[in-house]
Predict the structure.
Amino acid sequence: MQETEKNNKQLPLVVIFGRPNVGKSTLFNCLTEKRQALISPVAGTTRDSNLGRVSWRGRDFELVDTGGIMDLKHLINKTKASNDIDDKVQEQARQYLKRADLVIFLVDGKTGLLPQDRQMALLIKKNISSAKIILTVNKVDAPAGRLKISDFYKLSFGEPSLVSAANGSGTGDLLDIIVDRLKFGKTTVSSNNQADAEIENVFKICIIGKPNVGKSSLLNSI
């Protein structure tokens, strides 16, 4: 086993989950800043889960792009061994969901709330704590698109995070939410020397504001 694989096992696991063609692979590439996942308008293109490491605000976590779920039975029960590629893809996604520290439940802001979104929401609520789920509306490319998200509140996951994975809009705010919710080990500050003691006197400044006003861009600029 390579050293990188050993390190990844110690990182929190965040899983991107949703029906086919909502932009999971595009969001994965955006957050990992790599073009690792194949992107296509054809539903079900992702046949194997992609794994990558994300660093944000000095914290690292492992991100997984699951294959599109086309058969919801895989989220409930472990099926018998099968050589069918679709069965293997969906069983792999189920295993990642079971291990996940957080789940990004991705929906499509352009197509709106679909029956399959509702079904998937009900099923993951039965198997995953709602506190671990971040409802994320993708493809919100313009202010007018924000007016079309009211239906997603019916999923009862609270305030959705609005992003456009294609251009990166809102992804900084999404990463802030992920890092804030993950339970990272606390680091201790020693006072064995003057440099360490000075750290305790540093002023802490917080940038706050409504989503997508540019908080993360301002922080990066500073």
Remarks:
- The longest helix spans residues 85-99.
- The radius of gyration is 19 Å.
- The mean pLDDT is 78.
- Helices lie at 3-9, 24-32, 85-99, 115-127, 171-181, 194-199, 215-221.
